[in-house]
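Deliverable D5.2: sample structural annotation.
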Amino acid sequence: MESLITAAARALEAGDPLGALNRVALRNDAPSLALRGIAMAQLGDLAKAKALLRSAARAFGPREAVARARCVVAEAEIALVSRDLGWPVRTLAAARATLEKHGDLANAAHAGHIEARRLLLVGQLDDAERTLAEVSTTPLPPASQVARELVVAGIAIRRLRTETARAALDRAARAARLAGIPALAAEVDSTKLILDTPAARLIARGSEHPLLLGEVERLATSTALVLDTFHHVVRRQVVVVSLGTRPVLFALARLLAQAWPADVSRETLIAGAFRAKHVDESHRARLRVEIGRLRAKLKPLADVSATKQGFALAPRKTRDVIVLARPVEEKHANVLALLSDGEPWSSSALALALGTSARTVQRALEELARSNKVQSFGHGRARRWMTLPVPGFPTGLLLPGPLLKG
């Protein structure tokens, strides 16, 4: 019977969950429960998978610490794919330490990759890099190599290091071919598309055109004055003025930058920055005050000159002004950007990734649902939101080595 366990584990490593289930579907011993849980995860039934893995963890004896730790790692990956970002990370860290202590370096590395992926999702890039550096790179099976390189690429993409990202994805593609798991190869291919898909729009002198990620990266060394709508800053190379906490000043700066070298009328500035439908003298007085504040903020980079009709931007030490805008600008675009990965997200996970309150995210989701831009399934804490139908399990949840070896 133990030969069936070994065969099922090998089938899972090869990305064949149905083959694994054929061998252990009728068994309820601890190793079989764990293998069935992993197989159900690969088939996309995450709720059933989680229940089976928890049953397996309880069924393993006190001397089978490694097997229990592997179940914890598998459940952590299910939580990650389910975007349950509040899953107890200390439990994963303890499981990882147990695996390292007992010499199961492949699964310990897998746990480290899961931890790094979670940190990447919530935007903690330094912590993700630190976690990845702690993970041993040898020996790693091809599937784990893919997971590692995808994290490396994800961090590089967030940091606008496109060559580093491309090299990591090339290594991931080679490892995916060695693994022979179609789902892994598909995930690498979908990540590669990010580098060849417009990531922003450049607006200058009344015209605009899309930019790839590499082109956005090159703007960092440009001598132009850049108004960055992603980070709400105005910058020229290393000189950066943040307007993230001053939305009115940023709105005024953007209107002036988009119109440069022309000026912008007072009525247009008031309507754009103050959302005023009818302009009166109080709005004009407020505009004068806010323009004064903007002048003070932008002093290292530009001046704001009064004209007969309104105001114009006058950049210092450069002859170019550009606006770096999001590819699509609409209400709740940040929520849609996270949901665009095709995975089901909970509102609490979205709030954690966006750094805002769950209630704010919930209101945004309800508004997007009314306009048929997102859909939900499940109820209560199990409710998930997405923009596309639920995909298959994307990363090939693998636990190398037979689970019976505790």
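Annotation notes: The first strand starts at residue 200 and ends at 204. The chain has two domains: 1-136+332-406, 201-325.
The annotation will be released with the project's public dataset once the embargo ends.
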